[in-house]
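Can't paste images in this forum, so I'm doing it all in text. The chain is below; anyone willing to post the predicted structure tokens underneath?
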Amino acid sequence: MLKSTILIALGANLPSARYGTPAQTIEAALAALDAHPAVRVRRRSRWFESAPVPISDQPWYVNGVCLVDTDLSPRALLDVLHAIEADFGRVRSEKNAPRVLDLDLLAYDDFVTADDQDFDVPHPRMHERAFVLLPLRDVVPGWIHPRTGATLDALIADLSDEQVIRAMEPEHGAQEPYFDDDLDDD
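Text version of the structure:
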């Protein structure tokens, strides 16, 4: 039984001066997240390469998903994600702009934000994105969307065929999924 289902998406499509390629950058971001005193990475997906959404002439993205444990509130965790992005050189300019690092809080257990909050959980477009749902399947294959009740398999089946995504091969910086052996309760 999962202790919690707090899910974070990682992505990048620009190299980082400090960390290197987008794959190296999101690997370093995952380590930075796990090094935070209030966060523990419990599982992580393979890395995937995906075409930009919406389609553009930007470089392709490297994406993945991790599952974490934390006692932080959803808002406080989002603040940690934004601080890591800033530390990695993320500059927020226009929507869908290329980026050195993108960390998104996808879901926080069954928590659903109210209309009057200044952030959205679950992430409002995650159900439309192959670059989120396919890595998510590596981490929690039986996940159910807390707002809609849709299964992960149903969400994947509803994806547009126009989204191009592929699992990265090890020689291109890919890592195998990671699963903490202590994740499941007996």
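The longest helix spans residues 22-35. The radius of gyration is 15 Å.
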